[in-house]
Design a protein that fits this description.
single chain; Aspartate Aminotransferase, domain 1; 2 domains; three-stranded antiparallel beta sheet; globular; binds pyridoxal-5'-phosphate
Length: 369
């Protein structure tokens, strides 16, 4: 750690030769983008891997979320969480919808399902929950509420690539799920994303929206955008998909080590593990109580040792400069509490256990008596 900076994550990559082999064909075909052979191959492989009925690829996760919100022709209010990456809320707003923030629970930091019904009005059209850090939402209760009030459910599943609930691929819950394949995620296509969905009719409209609304050589039906995944992104995905199971196992080793060192420590809270979930070990968030351990103090102590964790998710979205005139984090007190105390520790497949030990030593040393 003395000479090398340890960042919160490090992108997974195939070997140089594997990638070169995969992109060689592109030099033969001169087909660089617009749903070429690599795009088709990756789409098929991901559909199988995620065990979903339908999938559409995009150039990134954010545009994938915007496109599915548009494809569903939603209007009005969307119930969502402020404890997430900027993208979730921005996508809702950029589609002309009004976000309504629901607080989170203090066990897994996903949406507090007991608070959803109170936020429903006659303008509510959808719920956009986030499987934050790879923790799955209470999908069964969300489904019950959505049915009762006739709402769409679109999950931000950016953190839950490859996870399963009760043996069922996470992309099968709700009407649709967005996955991000950004460089920093468990599975990456450099930049990239996908939407998985139940209703097969959405396939055509999603395809059209990501390609300027062009539906034929001389017909344009929608004011679509450009959100296509290119062939080099898809080739990276084909390579990384071959290794993702190994990478997840290696991540588990790191998480097990962290847990062994930090579990049960007074003033330190780790996430509870659900037995019916197959995890991907995307993130390792730790909540410090603010008395025995102080989050900002630990952040500085780690930084002084060349370790750069992240305060995911601080500040809360409802405190962002662009939203704070209309919203207040006081309305989501649990999210506020967690966001002021949480730190996401470095976690990636090749992080050495020795480094994990050193990180834990630094944390435990900052204890107040
Ligand atoms: C990464 C991320 C996104 C956006 O995905 P990109 O592929 O980077 O556009 C959306 N929501 C959450 C929760 C994320 O972590």
């Amino acid at each position: 750690m003395k000479n090398k900076q340890i960042l919160v994550t490090r992108s997974s990559m195939p070997t140089f030769d594997e990638y070169i082999d995969e992109i060689e064909e592109i030099w033969d075909s001169h087909w660089l983008t617009n749903m070429g052979i690599k795009h088709k191959t990756l789409e098929k492989e991901l559909k199988e891997y995620l065990q979903v009925p339908n999938i559409t690829l995009f150039t990134n996760g954010h545009l994938a979320l915007e496109c599915i919100l548009k494809a569903m022709k939603l209007r009005g209010e969307v119930i969502t969480t402020p404890f997430t990456f900027a993208s979730t809320t921005h996508a809702i707003v950029r589609c002309g919808l009004t976000p309504v923030f629901c607080d989170i629970n203090d066990t897994d930091y996903t949406m507090d399902v007991s608070k959803i019904e109170d936020l429903i009005t006659d303008r509510t059209c959808a719920i956009v929950p986030v499987h934050v850090y790879g923790n799955v939402c209470d999908v069964y209760e969300i489904e019950r509420i959505a049915k009762k009030y006739n709402l769409k459910v679109i999950y931000d599943a950016a953190h839950t690539f490859g996870e399963k609930i009760d043996g069922i691929g996470i992309g099968n819950f709700g009407d649709a799920s967005m996955f991000s394949f950004h460089a920093t995620k468990v599975f990456n296509t450099i930049e990239g994303g996908a939407v998985t969905y139940k209703d097969t009719c959405l396939n055509k409209i999603l395809y059209d929206i990501k390609n300027f609304g062009i539906t034929g050589p001389e017909t344009v039906e929608y004011a679509g955008g450009n959100a296509k995944m290119n062939e080099f992104q898809a080739a990276m995905g084909i390579c990384n998909l071959k290794h993702v199971d190994d990478e997840i196992l290696k991540r588990k080793r790191v998480v097990d080590k962290y847990r062994k060192r930090l579990e049960g420590m007074d003033g330190i809270k780790l996430l509870s593990i659900k037995t019916n979930v197959q995890y991907n070990y995307a993130y390792f968030p730790v909540v410090f109580d603010g008395e025995k351990y102080d989050r900002d103090e630990i952040f500085e102590a780690l930084k002084a040792n060349n370790v750069i964790p992240r305060k995911y998710f601080y500040p809360l979205v409802n405190d962002f400069k662009c939203y704070k005139e209309k919203y207040s984090s006081k309305d989501t007190p649990v999210a506020k509490y967690i966001s002021e105390r949480v730190l996401t520790l470095p976690l990636y497949a090749d992080l050495e256990l020795k480094t994990v030990n050193e990180i834990c030593d630094i944390i435990l040393k900052t204890k107040h008596n």
